[in-house]
Amino acid sequence: MNIVVCVKRVPMTQEVDLRISEDKKEVRKDNLAWVVNDWDNYAIEEAVRITESSGGTVTAVTVGAEDDEEVLRRALAMGADRAIRIDPGELELDPWVLSGLLAGAIRDLAPDLILTGVQAEDDNHGAVGAILAERLDVAHASVVNGIELEQGKAIIHVELEGGMDEVSIIGLPVLLTVQSGINEPRYVSVMGIRKARKKELRVIRATELGLSSEDRTPRTQIQEIFFPPETGGAEIIEGDASTIAEAILGILKEKGVNV
Amino acid sequence: MGGIFVIVEHRQGKLRDITLEMLAKANELSRESSQGVTAVVLSAGDAEFMDDLQSRAARVIAVQDDRLREYNVDDYRAILVPLFQEERPLLTLMGHTPWGMDLAPALAVRTGYPLATDCVAVDWENGVPVVVRSIFNGKLFSRVSFHESVGYLITVRPGAFSAEFTAGETGGLVSRQLPADLPESRKQFLEFVDTGVGEVDITQADFLVSVGRGIGESDNLGVVQELAEMLGGVLSCSRPVVDKNWLPKYHQVGTSGKSVKPKVYLALGISGAFQHVAGISGAGTVVAVNKDKKAPIFRVADYGVVEDLFVVVQALKEKVGG
Fold this sequence. Notes:
The complex is a heterodimer of chains A (259) and B (322). By secondary structure, chain A is α/β, with parallel strands linked by helices. Chain A has helices spanning 38-54, 69-78, 95-106, 128-136, 190-196, 213-216, 241-254, and strands at residues 2-6, 9-11, 34-36, 57-63, 82-87, 113-117, 139-150, 153-159, 164-171, 174-178, 200-205, 220-226, 235-236. In chain A, the strands form two sheets. A nine-stranded mixed sheet of chain A has the order 9-8-7-10-6-1-4-5-11, sandwiched between helices. In chain A, strands 2-3 form a two-stranded antiparallel sheet. In chain A, strand 7 (139-150) and strand 8 (153-159) form a beta hairpin. The model of chain A has no long low-confidence stretch (mean pLDDT 96). In chain B, helix 3 (73-87) packs across helix 4 and helix 5 (221-230) runs parallel beside helix 9. The relative contact order of chain B is 0.11. Chain B has a nine-stranded mixed sheet with strand order 9-8-7-10-6-1-4-5-11, with helices on both faces. With 322 residues, chain B is of the alpha/beta class. The termini of chain B are far apart. The chains are: A alpha/beta (259), B alpha/beta (322). Chains A and B meet through helix 4, strand 7, strand 8, strand 9 and strand 12 of A and helix 4, strand 7, strand 8, strand 9 and strand 12 of B.
């Protein structure tokens, strides 16, 4: 079982003051901490578990600059066998261009299974995985929270709304976008980090991929990034802990909740 | 040629709410331009929502066959791509749902139309659509334009638009045959499974004490569970708590969990991602406690407390414990 996992390094979004660039087209990255995209942790874990139980190899792939190799090393430490960083150079990355870079690097690997996260925490597109599948002409399913492999097929659970899952059988090769909670990602051990240093991490430049002009041209453009309007927000309860507790109990009483 | 297409999402014989929301928005966009609205539906022949659809769109194009009872991306692609090539809709709306996230990218690649996902606003600018989508888990918005094309695809966030509908031009059902040469799909539907059933039904609670990622670790749940009991409330949670297996799925509030409508919803350490917020739209009063003053939950809560949830929990216990 030859598995490819696409991973992304993203800024932490919780408890951080996001700031917008002068030209309003980007989020300023200088004051941000970076992590592996949450969904991708689940994708890496799922891939490693599959190869641990049924053999095969896991290749972790990312598109980015040298700093982004950090997420590849984490994937390797979790058990991926090798990694590829695609350096985009000066290309402007939207889901179309990004998926073209990934397709260019992955096509010749001819994987049986490609896993991506459902979406990235920064761009929140939720599209790159499925676009990639389409460009590679492999089957795909999105928002998968359960995978069982059998003889050239996968029984998958797709997470619908309201707790409903849709169970299907899908043929390999297949790309699945993986939902959080599908497994419990393992902690990265010191041993894992040490082993990771010996594993192959290859860099491919975008220029080596033979991309067409169409591949290099973004299909969407950010015109402006802005903060959501502050209108209609919560009435903030101020004061010390005791005052706050008093206020909350008052609200419960007012709204008819019996304490 | 041209026009606004809405790809109808339905399941188990019913139109999904997102479909009604998209049709309402499409009609609004239609009034602002000269583009007519077409609802495109692929379904089994016994679908009972055809009249409803016809009342919400100037035209309904329907392909009905038992093979299309469940959504399947291979079948939808095989039918819709030729339809798009024939009709060249200027703007096509799909839901940003597990279904829409699966289909829209496939159509985007095969038609060559640009795609913007999870849109919360869409407007015309010089005859072409411009959209707004949220990024950074809801902390920011991004206004996005498209590379020039004959057609544009968007997926629409459920709940972003109202389903309220002012009847415009309605009528016109066009039935088309299932293509005779439809290839075998690579995916076969087996069954639906309800994973949300459990010991507690949070949808019946008057008061929910809900925990999110801010709880830190499962050991900390005990202290909140005690508070919930002291206040006569029921414990619930956001997705990250279930992902980490700290609470079973039937406690989960949100799009992939349950929709709740308690009199009071006390959100502790919940950031307020839209998938969670979608589950509390029916709540009477939302009180949110979060250390992060920029947490999106404060935009939708009625009352907010910017404080460590454990400080608040402790203070509440002291007041009530006596």
